[in-house]
Amino acid sequence: KETANTMTGALLFKNIPVKQVMTPIANTFMLSVDEKLNFQTISNIFKTGYSRIPIYEVNRNNVIGLLLVKDLIFVDPEDDTRVSDVVNIFGRSLNTVWPDDKLGDVLRELKTGRSHMALVRDVNNEDGDQDPFYEVKGIITLEDIIEEILGDEIVDE
Ligand code: ADP
Questions:
Q1: In angstroms, what is the span from residue 141 Cα to ligand 1's centroid?
Q2: CA-CA distance, 144 to 138, in Å (whole number)?
Q3: What ligand 1 atom has the least distance to the C-alpha of 141?
Q4: Which among 150, 141, 145 has a CA at the least distance from the CA of 28?
Q5: What pTM does this model have?
Q6: Buried b (16+ CB within 10 A) or exposed e, 61-81
Q7: What is the DSSP string of 47-94?
Q8: Which residues lie with the beta carbon below 6 Å from any ligand 1 atom?
Q9: Which of 5, 81, 87, 118 lies in disulfide reach of 37, CB 3.0 to 4.6 Å?
Q10: Predicted confidence (pLDDT) per residue in 38-89, tens digit
């Protein structure tokens, strides 16, 4: 039965839209590029258990990079290192996708990209008095897609 479920998942996942499986922005753990990597910040990061943290500048709609938690091995909490000293700058490390993109296409993109995480972004033009702007809706990782294929939650090690 498990095999049958996986085969169904493998056939169906391709057409599922990103917005259906992404982690919404409200649940996404991000840091500001201006933050200092002191003891408190580092311990907050470790507590989340995530290995990749999107980094924003000024506001969360402006994601400029990615902090890889493994890079914190070399950071001394006493040094007041800034997040900006450690991040990979946007473009080299994060793909962006639309909420309506299909998982089949996103999987292909994530496999060739350098990070297994993409930013889900949409144009917000709800307010007619304001210029349209890019709004970050959430993130999606390879793991979110694989879960759709396997039809099951993956228990992280
Ligand atoms: P990790 O390697 O950090 O465990 P995964 O890529 O395995 O991350 O993803 C596991 C789940 O956690 C996915 O649902 C993904 O969307 C979510 N996730 C990954 N990074 C973050 C983050 N910084 N904030 C919120 N959710 C995240």
A1: 7
A2: 12
A3: 6
A4: 141
A5: 0.90
A6: eebbbbbeeeebeebeeeeeb
A7: HH--SEEEEEESEEEEEEEEEEGGGGGG--GGG--BGGGTPEETTSS-
A8: 23, 27-29, 50-53, 139, 141, 143-144, 156
A9: 81
A10: 999 999 999 999 999 999 999 999 999 999 999 899 899 999 899 999 987 7
The model's pLDDT over 6-40, given as tens digits with 9 standing for 90+, comes to 777 778 899 999 999 999 999 999 999 999 999 99
CA 29 to ligand 1: nearest atom = 24
Whether ipTM > 0.90 holds is yes
CA of 59 to the centre of ligand 1 (A): 20
Q: Count of CB atoms within 10 A of residue 85's CB? A: 12
Question: Sorting pLDDT into bands at 50, 70 and 90, what band is 90?
Answer: low
C-beta atoms surrounding 12 within 10 Å? 13
